[in-house]
């Protein structure tokens, strides 16, 4: 049923009668009606682009006094209230409360409260919620059953049918006027006929992004190439035979939720007004004639990379991707059925691939040109509607790195700021995903006789929002916690680490100070019950955040040496908006080393000098740089106190490979072991780009003892649908999507093998001034190795970093001033490992003779 605005004077009597029929007022009573007779009758909270005109309407019989009523807004995340708004009476029984901060989450709600504090009604949209605090405390909301998708034009709202609890919309907003019902099944407008003159769709589209005919009424004809009338998109794509102009598209979207049903292949004539909606050219307010049916036109090849201008000429048309497309993000798959695809393999985060600034911006532009979104033909928020996300089953996921196979036609469309492929039949059935990046059954092998893991446990909280509001960031209740814990324990048990650094675990010292380690103790008890080992934890705590770092370890594998180390008060100031580092020294059969767990400030917020500089590093980069600087100084102090230089820095640095905080740590003598031992493995996916926010840094003395590193690819590449609070039918207590970060595992050799390094020279009898190469083997992966001539006071020739196999090459120029005879070339690693080789030089006369002979012989 739809509603239309009706002049108040014409419907006053009708309205009062309707309200009476609904049980809201007794018509026979001339006295002032009670405020409890009021109801919420209209809501607007979301539209395409910047939200405008957000408001809530309260309606009562015209004699009702609305004085003292209020609206209390509740957030579905935790069920807490976020605003209380007075209802200002205007004397005619209708009050409109405007508020720009009405939230559009999943779900959110509003309680209408009387002057006595009693709740008159508690409504919500996009699902139900239970209120925490405020007048509706403990109540469960009533879902009004309709929602705003956020894609609609401004000026619409959700509206209550007078005298009922039925809601409809989005419809044209009628704030301040009484909602009145109209015919729910009106007769459609007659079509334009099949013999009328039409213009080409190319002339409607024009050669640019916007139509030259915007605002004009046109008539076009063509074939229905995509039927998207259901699922919230409210229209279909029409494509004609073309105008022969390569700069114009031959397809267009027809938007009208009241248009007659059409099918793929229908030949139609459409009359309506040309409009631009969020970057998409469309025809609206249409009349449609179906004039027959026929085959679909041949799909045009869509080649990537492509600019916006190159895509514009195919807007609205049937297309087929010209290259293999790889899944590069599944973030919105659970909510909107969207998958980001890319040509040339998965995308990398710009600063994972290049230095911040112009180089990273170039990667960002390239990523945009290489990618586009695959949609499912719906605009529905699947997670709030309780609908199954497309493409997924419990054991057959779609993972970043998989490839797409298009078995049915698709059209190229544009909405929500992105180019997207929409299925021609409006369903997701026509695309499959061969598992080119299958789920790994076990963690990667890393060698060594001791393993160290790093795991972000995604807001593992044992306390709930019902008691702590939005300070409790994890599971909503005990049932959700049980599911979350089951996945985390399965993953940690399979990781089989001897020492484990944890991040985003509840800081019970803040929430429940009387039991400051309750969260980590609860998790360890579950792990011990699963793997049968004895675990302990480092007793260090902080008060800067409700989440914290933790270090846990198997007591049969390592022994904690002394107590934990924490930063000084002066150092702590740098971590006021982050998590405090926690350090602990361990002894494993005589091998002493220190682990420091870290979680630096996130990229999501910052003002002033911490505002996003646009160089690819996100917000708060200066704070992360300061935190990294303090961290390496803290680590040096801890290592000195331990009497051993072996240090590992692990955790979420919230910085990709080439960002400034990483440079700070590397400049202090640490090696980022991921690029050395696992160069194509990544811990995180964000905005379509893969990269590692999580790092393992090793001190120079520690590098030779690391036998391997692996990123277990179980979380970041999987859909949120598989999380403990994702789509319930897809839950399983397996490790996949136990978190949003992939865990990392490192192998440590507590007894280093005695394999001497070796060195060879590319030319044992070079000429002076010639470029030659010395190559070494047997160095530690990631070790910095310097080549030198011991016979010279300033004999350094150059340096390089050993690769994952311990191989290193240094190319240098033979000094012209060297005397004849044998010359030693020595390779020296930062660990102290050395290897030597050499070359022999001729006398000046011999060299001249041999050089002339070389030239003569060609």
Automatic annotation (TrEMBL):
Leading EC class: hydrolase
InterPro entries in the record: Endo/exonu/phosph_ase_sf, Endo/exonuclease/phosphatase, ExeM-like
One MF term in the entry's GO annotations: 5'-nucleotidase activity
The keyword Cell membrane belongs to this UniProt entry's keyword annotation: no
Span of the signal peptide: 1-33
Coiled coil: none
Pfam families: Exo_endo_phos
Keywords of this entry: Endonuclease, Hydrolase, Nuclease, Signal
All residue ranges annotated as the Endonuclease/exonuclease/phosphatase domain in the record: 475-741
Listed EC numbers: 3.1.3.5
Identification of the protein by name: 5'-nucleotidase
Organism name: Modestobacter versicolor
